[in-house]
């Protein structure tokens, strides 16, 4: 890679990391302030706060990965960070999945007994879902450590685990099986909840539009905004999965421009979606503005 490209990628990565930590930090500070004032945190804020903390960890882990890819740190310093990245990445995917499921159960109006049951139980289930996600992420991290020769291609192994040899031949089918086992369930839950929510919001907006005869109904704007927010969430989530698959199978050569671009997109997902969470939540948006104004006044 040319020196100019290396410097440009490093600068963009630093900006991305700082922006991601800043955006997710706002979520943590705003919800943390509410926790101190009210001595409690509603389940949705708890879930979003855990997701924001996790994403700050992902941003820092991605920074270490980029330093290793650019040969700015040596692999022995990095091996543990790769395991940490696996943990926070899987945890972040599950928390984002539960966030989509939470929105679906609270907003969707699909007539189904399971959905009715979840509407009354989802708030109480949130702490247990977070705990289950932590345990799942610990389990997948342990599997990654034990079977690293399956999850990482030859280029990755040569760079990060130079002394390891694969006990059996690693085939694309075997890699696909491991990838499917790790990511299929959260992807399936996310797709089902997102599609149900988009369908429900779209149907409701259409009904309101056809039945409302007076001035423009304010609720229509709210539902359209929620519809666009979930749609963008779905697009970002699927894009993240696609990029992870490209990195996993090393479609692009390690340290190439396209490979580094993929790592940049992965980091951007965690920042952009957190920003949409702030902008899509009036209370969060208002508190974030107040926090920024307070910071300006103290300068």
Count of strand segments: 0
**Mean residue pLDDT:** 77
Helix- and strand-based class? mainly alpha
Order of helices and strands, N to C?
A: HHHHHHHHHH
Distance from first to last alpha carbon: 41 Å
State the low-pLDDT regions, or none: none
**CATH topology grouping:** Rhopdopsin 7-helix transmembrane proteins
Report Rg.
21 Å
Percentage of residues assigned to helices? over 70%
In percent, how much strand structure appears in the residues?
Answer: under 5%
As for the number of domains, it is 1
CATH class: Mainly Alpha
* Number of helices, where a helix is a run of at least 4 consecutive DSSP H or I residues: 10
Name the CATH homologous superfamily. Rhodopsin 7-helix transmembrane proteins
Instruction: Give the biggest sheet.
Output: none
Characterization of this structure:
The chain is mainly alpha-helical. The protein contains ten helices and no strands. Helix 1 packs across helix 10. Pfam families: TAS2R.
Short key terms for the protein model shown above:
Taste receptor type 2; 84% helix; globular; transducer; Rhopdopsin 7-helix transmembrane proteins; bitter taste receptor activity; 299 residues; mainly alpha
Offer a concise description of the structure.
This protein is mostly helical and 299 residues long. It is 84% helix and 0% strand.
């Amino acid at each position: 890679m040319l020196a100019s490209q290396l410097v440009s990628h490093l600068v963009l990565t630093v900006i991305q990391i700082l922006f991601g930590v800043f955006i997710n930090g706002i979520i943590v500070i705003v919800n943390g302030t509410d926790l101190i004032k009210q001595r409690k945190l509603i389940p949705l804020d708890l879930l979003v706060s855990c997701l924001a903390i996790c994403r700050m960890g992902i941003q820092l882990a991605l920074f270490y990965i980029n330093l290793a890819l650019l040969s700015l740190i040596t692999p022995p310093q990095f091996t543990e960070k790769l395991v940490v990245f696996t943990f926070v990445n899987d945890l972040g995917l599950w928390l984002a999945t539960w966030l989509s499921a939470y929105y679906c159960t609270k907003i969707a109006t699909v007539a189904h007994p399971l959905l009715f049951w979840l509407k009354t139980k989802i708030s109480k289930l949130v702490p247990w879902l977070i705990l289950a996600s932590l345990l799942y992420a610990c389990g997948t991290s342990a599997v990654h450590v034990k079977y690293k020769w399956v999850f990482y291609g030859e280029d990755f192994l040569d760079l990060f685990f130079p002394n390891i040899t694969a006990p059996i031949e690693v085939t694309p089918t075997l890699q696909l099986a491991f990838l499917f086992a790790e990511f299929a369930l959260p992807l399936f839950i996310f797709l089902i909840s997102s599609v149900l929510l988009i369908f429900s919001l779209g149907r409701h907006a259409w009904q309101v539009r056809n039945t409302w005869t007076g001035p423009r109904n304010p609720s229509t704007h709210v539902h359209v905004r929620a519809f666009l927010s979930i749609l963008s969430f779905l697009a970002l989530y699927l894009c993240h999965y696609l990029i992870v698959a490209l990195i996993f199978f090393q479609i692009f050569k390690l340290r190439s421009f396209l490979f580094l671009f993929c790592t940049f997109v992965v980091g951007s997902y965690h920042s952009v979606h957190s920003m949409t969470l702030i902008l899509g939540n009036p209370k969060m948006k208002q508190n974030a503005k107040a926090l920024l104004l307070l910071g300006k006044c103290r300068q």
